[in-house]
Amino acid sequence: xxxxxxxxxxxxxxxxxxxxxxxxxxxxxxxxxxxxxxxxxxxxxxxxxxxxxxxxxxxxxxxxxxxxxxxxxxxxxxxxxxxxxxxxxxxxxxxxxxxxxxxxxxxxxxxxxxxxxxxxxxxxxxxxxxxxxxxxxxxxxxxxxxxxxxxxxxxxxxxxxxxxxxxxxxxxxxxxxxxxxxxxxxxxxxxxxxxxxxxxxxxxxxxxxxxxxxxxxxxxxxxxxxxxxxxxxxxxxxxxxxxxxxxxxxxxxxxxxxxxxxxxxxxxxxxx
Length: 272
Known about the structure:
- Residues 166-265 form the HTH araC/xylS-type domain.
- By secondary structure, the chain is of the alpha+beta class.
- The chain folds into two domains: 16-152, Jelly Rolls (Sandwich), CATH 2.60.120.280; 161-271, Arc Repressor Mutant, subunit A, CATH 1.10.10.
- The protein is built from nine helices and nine strands.
- The protein has helices at 95-99, 132-152, 161-175, 183-190, 194-205, 209-227, 232-238, 244-255, 259-271; strands spanning 16-23, 30-33, 38-45, 47-52, 55-60, 64-67, 73-77, 84-91, 110-111.
- The strands form two sheets. The chain has a five-stranded antiparallel beta sheet. A four-stranded antiparallel beta sheet has the order 2-7-4-5, with no helix packed on it.
- The longest helix is centred in the middle third of the chain and has 21 residues, at 132-152.
- The protein is elongated, with a radius of gyration of 27 Å.
């Protein structure tokens, strides 16, 4: 008998929605067996049971369970009140990382009823003949679904202190151009107690949040003055200063040059 030829896949996805579907109330069951993908099931009504090597988990409407790759499972409906559910199968390099941000674990593959009906958020991809834009939409919808699981069932792992500093820095780097940006806005975005963040930030960055914001704005202004061709007024606005005079004072204090001097200096260097 001629051996079957298998062809490697040349398409790589960080997160790929493989298949999804909706199961109406019936006595369908699966297992015991293993899968090579991740699969989230959301119970829309009825009852059922999931069995793994870590235990037996009764399931009710509103609850969810995950099948992990290569983990043996057996799941079946309640004979008197069979469940209806939706599911999505997925894989990719990001799959494990994203699920690790939720309560789902191999020894705890079940979460309690969600605060909202998650069924409408499940992607719809029920055949292999999927157009590229449909594949992209299904992956985007899968990310949206996982974001709700992260919100409602966050991992017990406490966010490291340095992450608060990183989040504050990222918020500044994404919003420095806003003329109304305040330190309070940054604290509120990070969602941590104000004085605690101040202490963490000073220890990690060697300066206050306010000083970091000014420093970032001036560094960005230097880049624009060197090569953008923008007027000083436009540069000031672009880095979060509505008052050109105030911007010029802050710039000279930080660099020892006025914006026009800095621009002239670097335009001369460019000509050489």
